[in-house]
UniProtKB/TrEMBL annotation:
Protein name: NAD(P)H-binding
Organism superkingdom: Bacteria
Ranges where the NAD(P)-binding domain occurs: 7-192
Species of provenance: Gracilibacillus ureilyticus
UniProt-listed CDD domains: SDR_a5 (cd05243)
Length: 216
């Protein structure tokens, strides 16, 4: 299975591409914005597509023409304003969903936010609410498609080394989780069709990732 990783140069994305390239059932195609970001992925043996997520749907669809699945790990980041949250976390996500349809790619995995319910929007701090809103509507857009989707809702992300130990279910208690372990969850989700049509929250716990995915 060939996988287009959108947001590959991000902190989760780099882990995802690295793990995919270590798995003999998967191969990665890294979608990045700048040519100077390419060497990291080429050194891993991954294909590279230089595409700006703020560009046209057709450009993203072209990058997806030779893949079997899409993983959306892109994010505007905490230091950008509401405009970038809108353009990347909402519009960027929707454009990749539409690109998947154009390229006839059925499998799609979305990295969302821990809680994107209407209640979460209402209770979010003012500075964080636009991000939750963007993720809420991106998730809704994906649910309304006929794509074979999985929506992953991670807890508070850290750069700690992954433990390969998670708590994973439709609802889990709030907590932290290393980005490396979210990348492991993505890869196992790609390998297990039982995750199709599912969404779940993930935090650090006591169950190996593969076992947690198989329990869904």
């Amino acid at each position: 299975m060939k996988v287009l990783v959108i947001g590959a140069n991000g902190q989760i994305g780099k882990h995802v591409v690295s793990l995919i390239q270590k798995n003999d059932k998967l191969e990665a195609k890294a979608m990045i914005r700048k040519e100077e970001q390419a060497d990291f992925f080429k050194d891993l043996g991954a294909d590279v597509a230089i595409v700006d997520l703020e560009g046209e749907i057709e450009e993203i669809a072209k990058a997806a023409e030779d893949v079997d699945a899409i993983v959306f790990t892109a994010g505007s980041g905490p230091k950008t304003g509401k405009d970038k949250t809108l353009m990347i976390d909402l519009d960027g996500a929707v454009k990749t969903i539409e690109a998947a349809k154009q390229a006839n790619v059925k499998r799609y995995i979305m990295i969302s936010s821990y809680d994107t319910t209407r209640e979460a929007i209402q209770s979010a701090p003012e500075s964080f609410a636009p991000y939750v809103v963007a993720k809420h509507y991106a998730d809704e857009w994906l649910r309304d498609t006929d794509l074979d989707y999985t929506i992953i809702h991670p807890g508070a992300l850290t750069n700690d080394p992954g433990k390969n130990q998670v708590a994973l279910a439709e609802k889990v208690e709030r907590g932290e989780v290393p980005r490396e372990d979210i990348a492991r969850v993505i890869v196992e989700s790609l390998l297990h069709d039982s995750t199709i049509g599912k969404e779940f929250q993930v935090v650090t716990g006591n169950t190996p990732v593969e076992e947690a995915i198989q329990s869904l």
